[in-house]
Amino acid sequence: MAAKLAVLGTLVVLALLGPVSSQQAGYGYGGGSPTPTPPPAYPPTTSPSPTPSPPPAYPPTSSTPSPPTYSSPSPAPPPPAAYPPTTSPTPSPPTTYPPPTPASPPPPSPASGPALSVGYYNDKCPGAEALVREAVRAADAGIKAGLVRLFFHDCFVQGCDASVLLKPDNDTNPQPEILGIPNLSLRGLDVIDAAKKALEEKCPGVVSCADIVAFAGRDASFFLSGGAINFTMPAGRYDGKVSNASDTLPNLPPPFADVAQLKAMFAAKGLDTIDMVALSGAHSIGRSHCSSFSRDRLPPSNTSDMNPAFATQLKANCTSPSGADNTVAQDYRTPDQLDNQYYWDVINHKVLFASDAALLKSGDTAALVYAAALFQKEWQDRFGKAMVKMGGVEVKTAANGEIRQMCGYVNKPYSG
Ligand SMILES: *[C@@H]1O[C@H](CO)[C@@H](O)[C@H](O)[C@H]1NC(C)=O
Ligand SMILES: *[C@@H]1O[C@H](CO)[C@@H](O)[C@H](O)[C@H]1NC(C)=O
Ligand SMILES: *[C@@H]1O[C@H](CO)[C@@H](O)[C@H](O)[C@H]1NC(C)=O
Ligand SMILES: *[C@@H]1O[C@H](CO)[C@@H](O)[C@H](O)[C@H]1NC(C)=O
Ligand SMILES: *[C@@H]1O[C@H](CO)[C@@H](O)[C@H](O)[C@H]1NC(C)=O
Ligand SMILES: *[C@@H]1O[C@H](CO)[C@@H](O)[C@H](O)[C@H]1NC(C)=O
């Protein structure tokens, strides 16, 4: 409730911050600027806020009472952002309260599942988390981005149970999730397998693949954010035994999703609009196949509100003489950094997917986009919280799961 109120306060503040956009043009985003401009005063004291009391602090539970600092680890200062975009109307501030809690379907509460706990392996397999972290550290940036995405794909399909890792098996399961259409370029499976192998040698039959995927997603976020996204990930998940390619399309939000569909698909996993917008920041890393967006977003399609110069660049980068499906960076400015640059890309109409652009098209999501763009630290906190929440989706227990011996295969029944 406190969180809701805080967000409400934030939305109110953002609504009032509308004029800040003109100030913003001065320093743009990109805190990489050698002479950092002081952070915007926050919350504004002149607020003619409709709420009687001053807007609550944001985030409410923050241990640091000081006002949020506006900082960016970005080493490469991007040019000042065009802000607000001139090619489209400024999104209207939210007018309806309370904000983003979706009304339906009733979110399944991740909390109703088995209790996960932080440090679950401290006694059962000391050093397990550190081992995963080192495996992730060694991976390149593209694989790290893949590990964040892998966690998402795992949790959204059959819950966080490593079902995404199961390999096709001619006899028992010829069409697991990995063969589903949205699998394009799933990466990082080797890192998970290698960590699992090492953990099996260390403590056989103890550490689930589902937990390794969750730790790896957390650790990849940590490294790609230069340590700024730093959170604990509860564990104790069991591995699932079901993996079906036909479950992928209905559960994974497609790149052409609009706001209503995005909200509904996240709500179906117990994740609200705040979580959804925070997690969308993962599109500040990784690459996308051009086939995922070219049809509806690039010329000759005229339905997209993409910045025309950006579209021209993408068109060129997607053109391949051999007809190959090229890949392009999700965030062309800081492609290997998990940062809030993504939200500036959204604001500037320089994002790949319709589902990214969609975030500006509804008042509540637009306000959250602006908040994330302006307050990196708060977004980093929200991102971590949303990752933990996502990590609780439809978690398996000993009753309906197992600890796999190999992440690619369900354990063989005992035949002694
Ligand atoms: C699975 O079936 C395909 C075609 O029927 C065959 O080529 C392949 O060797 C089989 N794989 C395994 C592991 O049995
Ligand atoms: C996967 O789902 C489809 C459609 O629900 C179903 O027909 C099929 O039997 C399932 N496959 C497995 C291996 O459970
Ligand atoms: C993704 O699915 C395609 C087609 O079903 C398959 O050929 C490919 O191997 C899958 N990707 C991975 C990483 O398994
Ligand atoms: C991350 O958080 C832990 C405490 O949870 C702390 O010990 C560690 O120093 C932090 N790392 C960074 C890079 O901030
Ligand atoms: C978009 O293209 C279609 C068909 O090519 C055309 O009928 C329509 O008028 C165009 N819309 C705009 C806004 O240019
Ligand atoms: C297009 O490719 C060039 C060269 O790799 C790169 O510098 C640029 O950022 C790319 N642009 C986009 C929009 O992906």
TrEMBL record:
Region span, Disordered: 22-115
Binding site for Ca(2+) 1: D154, V157, G159, D161, S163, E177
Residues that hold heme b according to the record: H283
Segments of skewed composition (Pro residues): 35-59, 65-111
GO BP term (any one): response to stress
Keyword terms: Calcium, Disulfide bond, Glycoprotein, Heme, Hydrogen peroxide, Iron, Metal-binding, Oxidoreductase, Peroxidase, Secreted, Signal
Primary site of residence: secreted
Residue numbers binding substrate: P253
Organism: Sorghum bicolor
EC number: 1.11.1.7
Name listed for the protein in its UniProt record: Peroxidase
